[in-house]
Amino acid sequence: MRRSPSSYRSLCARTLSEKVSKYMKSDMYSKHAEKYDLAVQDNIYNAHLERPSLQAMLDDLSGLNVLDLGCGTGIYAEFLIEQGAAEITCLDASQQMIEIVNSKFADRVSAYPQDLSTGLPREKSNSADVIICPLVVHYIEDLSALFKEVNRVLKAGGYIVFSTHHPFADFECSRSGNYFERELVNEVWDTVGEPVEVVFYRRSLTEIMDALTTNGLAVTQLSEGRVSDKVQEISMERYDYLSNNPNFIFIKCQKLS
How would you write the chain as a 3-class SS string? Predict the structure, then answer.
């Protein structure tokens, strides 16, 4: 979901035998869900880099059915409500995150726990106008299976906008030295004010693009994001770094048929 490594100890461990979506088991999104909710309201990586960059790629959402994959604690749900979306469905692998979403927006959104690595079994075909998926796909091993489901659920002409770790940024964690090899990475982030282990997949841009194009999704826009000028007031060091180095990548795709 949500990379906020303002200060982390990189463990960068290649353990490809672990073939499960381990983000579900991370304390970051379960034990520390409430702390996480507070932390991402106004932090550098989520609030002042990822969210404005992804939101800038969305068209008018008024009256549309929107599916929020990896909804976290409902930060995007609030935005979607403000933008006038007609129906909002929020999914997250973390039961704790879903409970927070329901406590905030129970009368305005439909929210339920779902491991995205197993697809979208409760969602009807051709039902969503727009799908957003902020900082989630790096936790999923088989992207082709996910994007096949995205294609099924999107209406004809509908689109998905998603963000993920930039392949260039993650390559520093490679133990194989092979950019094109998918690797499982362990890091420790201090997003919630204390060190928490997080596990995700490092992969090439080629792998991401292949997973999209082989499943009927055409890339219509690609961005590497732009850090908000507000970050200068928080940390000039981080602002200078993020102004000169990619951290996330943002991709918009339309269903072909």
Answer: CCCCCCCCEECCCCCCCCCCCHHHHCHHHCCCHHHHHHHCCCCHHHHHHHHHHHHCCCCCCCCCEEEEECCCCCHHHHHHHHCCCCEEEEEECCHHHHHHHHHHHCCCCEEEECCHHHCCCCCCCCCEEEEEEECCHHHCCCHHHHHHHHHHHEEEEEEEEEEEECHHHHHHHCCCCCCCCCEEEEEEECCCCCCEEEEEEECCHHHHHHHHHCCCEEEEEEECCCCCCCHHHHCHHHHHHHHHCCCEEEEEEEECC
